[in-house]
């Protein structure tokens, strides 16, 4: 048996707005859009993607699954994403953590890790 990772589903009150936010943040392309679903990928035929699907209830607590990103320059990437509308959040990571926890416009947490050691 073999499995191919197709996408991560993100429930969203406004899938088009949130999906477009992530498409811009990641520099990904839109491969499908409707009022209830918005799918993006790194390239049209490259997997996995992110698929934002309407769920008419707001996020209620800390996400049980989140994305981690490893940038070339953590400070620059955090600043860029905050300027794009992300917010810094405290989920108990403490001040000594080597990663920065941010949240997208609907409150979904994600981490910007430190630069990879050379």
TrEMBL record:
It holds the Pfam family Glyoxalase_6. Signal peptide: none annotated. Residues 4-115 form the VOC domain. It comes from the Bacteria. SUPFAM superfamilies: Glyoxalase/Bleomycin resistance protein/Dihydroxybiphenyl dioxygenase. PANTHER family: CONSERVED PROTEIN, HYPOTHETICAL FUSION PROTEIN. This is VOC domain-containing protein. It comes from Kribbella steppae.
């Amino acid at each position: 048996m073999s499995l191919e990772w197709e996408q991560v589903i993100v429930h969203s009150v406004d899938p088009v707005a949130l999906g477009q936010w992530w498409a811009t943040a990641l520099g990904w392309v839109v491969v499908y859009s409707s009022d209830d679903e918005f799918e993006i990928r790194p390239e049209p035929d490259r997997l996995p993607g992110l698929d934002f699907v309407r769920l008419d209830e707001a996020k209620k607590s800390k996400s049980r699954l989140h994305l981690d990103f490893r940038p070339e320059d953590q400070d620059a990437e955090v600043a860029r994403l905050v300027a794009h509308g992300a917010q810094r959040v405290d989920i108990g990571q403490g001040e000594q953590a080597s990663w920065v926890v941010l949240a997208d416009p609907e409150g979904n947490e994600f981490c910007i890790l430190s630069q990879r050691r050379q």
